[in-house]
Amino acid sequence: MEKVSMQETIIYGGAFNRPTLAHQAILQACVDYAEPRNAEIWLLPSASRVDKTIEVGRSERIEFCEALLRDVMSRTVRLGIETTELDRTQLTETYDTVQELGALYPTRSFTWVFGADSAASMETWDHGQWLKDTLSMLLINRPGTALPDLGPRAVELPVEAGNYSSTELRRRLAATEPYEDMVGPEVARLIAAKNAMLETC
To answer: For the sheet containing 7-14, what is the strand order?
Structure first.
């Protein structure tokens, strides 16, 4: 029987509410990693979790992911957006997403991007030990967080992401403070367009 060729696909998940220069730097590092491997990259906008509620509509979430994709130099790497979690009716669990994507795309091998802070708590997640032992992972160091013990299929992806937080960005937007130094040009244009629409309402 002929062996099926697997398309390596990097999954970069997150709220991306709103995407900052840190998200852009991580995504660009993923592009640099993916290009020589002929891998693709999918953004995976997350839905609400037990510990985080995201009160932004589906279409707006996708718009900001599209803007983030436009802000990186993709070169030969194919970029896409996977809406599995946005389309799910129950709260997000990474294990469920891993199983669902594996069933939906049997000819793809997935590598998952996690921040060091998330990876450090992975064993406490639903099926967390299985995730740590099984997943191919790229681990991103966070300021002030040491990289945890790597799983058997995890590697560090060095990124100079800076200290840009979506929480601070949303605070600035709510306070009508300058925000342009925190985002890429395409994300800035989309934010400005959204603000202009609100002003005309």
So the answer is: 79-81, 40-45, 7-14, 108-115, 136-140, 154-156
Q: Which two tokens stand for residue 83?
A: 């809406």
Tokens of 59: 């279409």
pTM flag (> 0.90): yes
pLDDT for the residue numbered 3 = 65
